[in-house]
Amino acid sequence: MKSDERTTTETLRRLCSGGPVTSVYFNLTAPPGEEDAALRRELLAKRLRAQGADEAAVEAVDRLIMRAEPGSGAVAVFAVEDIGAVDGEPEPLVVEMPGARPRDLAVHGPVPCLLPLLAWLQERPPYVLTLVDRKGADIETCRGGTTAATTRTVDGPDDEIVRNAPGGWSQSRHQHRAEDSWEHNATRVAHALAGDLADSGARVLLLGGDVRAMQYLTKHLPEGVRQEVTVGHVSGGRGRDGAWQRRKRQVREQVGRWADEETRGLLKRLDEGRGPSGLAVEGAVPTLRALARGQVATLLVADDPADRRTAWFGPAPTQVSDRRTPLVEEGASPVVRGRLADVAVRAAVLTGAEVHVLDPEAPGLPSQGIGALCRYA
To answer: What is the pLDDT of residue 32?
Structure first.
């Protein structure tokens, strides 16, 4: 798996399907007073060897960290020993994480340590930025996480967009024709936007540009889109202007605000779903049981570095338990023990559930730092 590969659901499934896995996070912007990069890399390699990591994997990970450009952010490297091998050595997955400030982490175990990566991706959800005028729009689609944004231009079918006329009896007709043209053009943009939002999975739409064109655009967005998507506004317009830096900041702030609101909404649903007849579970054992039944739609788990609890799992996605005995009796082979949070994330990824990472200090956490919203009771 190469460094430019998108961090897709399929990529995460591949990481969770193999093993053992070497997971490393390296902060490229070390805090003042911390050891220099060479010493920090040496300490990470020492930790991996002490945990039984394959020497080829340790050396490959170290080489990739050395190649990372120092700056703001971090790099994550995952090496799975039994898949993606090239000439007998594992070909790791490398994810550059701009803006991330995780602690240095080196873990070798039966499952990948994905929580810091998932938390970073969670803060960078998909969005669509659209700058409109009366002719059409420039649409920037960001699919989230590590994927670069793509931009395309959509112009409407009508080019009579100026409503000024010399006056007289034809003045009103010119104005109506121009208004009709604006609306026709905005309708085409709205249809294109609906497709881009659906294809990217984005639930954030940011608009900027001509006020009248934006009004027509929002009017013609499909009802389902308007119900499901959060619409925000940014500075500047379609033409070249000096607002791009302010707009970039506004995009980052509004997307981050949406991500925070998403977390609050999930915790609210968890609270409302508590009880025997609800669609929520919380606590380690109930959550593992829901994962074992394939019930989980969204796993909510706190990323607490001090959490050393463990759980057991077998090769099948739903073979997961707080105890080894039930899996052995079920015929799972091999049965392996791993860190509880990582085992739960593995089961969620392989059963098609969403994973939402929580701050261990946030209010309203599920009991024992782990819970789930279920598809059915």
So the answer is: 57
The dihedral built from the CA positions of residue 98, 99, 101 and 102, taken in this order, carries a sign that is negative
Copy the structure tokens of residue 129: 């930025």
| 101/233 Cα distance (integer angstroms) | 29
Provide the pairing of β-strand 230-233 with 204-209.
Answer: parallel
pTM for the full model? 0.87
pLDDT on residue 51:
95
CB contact set of 132 (below 8 Å; sequence gap of 6+)? 186, 189, 207, 208, 209, 210, 213, 214, 217, 237, 238
- Residue 209 region, left (φ>0) first, then alpha (ψ -120 to 50), else beta? left
Instruction: Give tens-digit pLDDT for 224-258.
Output: 898 999 999 999 888 777 788 899 999 999 999 99
| pLDDT number for residue 287 | 98
Distance CA 99, CA 106 (A): 20
Q: By 3-state DSSP, what share of the chain in percent is helix, strand and coil, each rounded to 5? A: 40, 25, 35
Specify the 3-state DSSP secondary structure of 51: coil
Return the structure tokens found at 292: 């074992």
Q: What is the pLDDT of residue 86?
A: 45
d(CA 370, CA 364): 11
CA 40 to each of CA 27, 33, 37, 151, 330: distance values in angstroms, whole numbers, following the listed order? 10, 12, 5, 40, 44
Residue 194 CB partners (closer than 8 Å, separation 6+): 221, 222, 225
**HSE on the CB side for 336, CA within 13 Å?**
16
- Domains assigned to the chain: 9-113 (3.30.960), 127-262 (3.30.420.60), 273-374 (3.30.1330.30)
Query: Token digits for 134?
Result: 């009366």
Please list the rounded mean pLDDT of every run of 10 residues in the chain (377 residues): 54 90 90 74 95 90 87 89 53 87 92 95 94 93 84 77 50 62 89 93 94 92 91 87 86 94 95 88 97 98 94 97 95 94 98 96 94 94
- Under 8 Å between Cβ of 207 and 132: yes
Per-residue model confidence (pLDDT) at position 299: 98
Cα dist from 129 to 102, 187, 207, 208, whole Å: 29, 17, 6, 8
| Segment (H or E) for 302 | strand 296-302
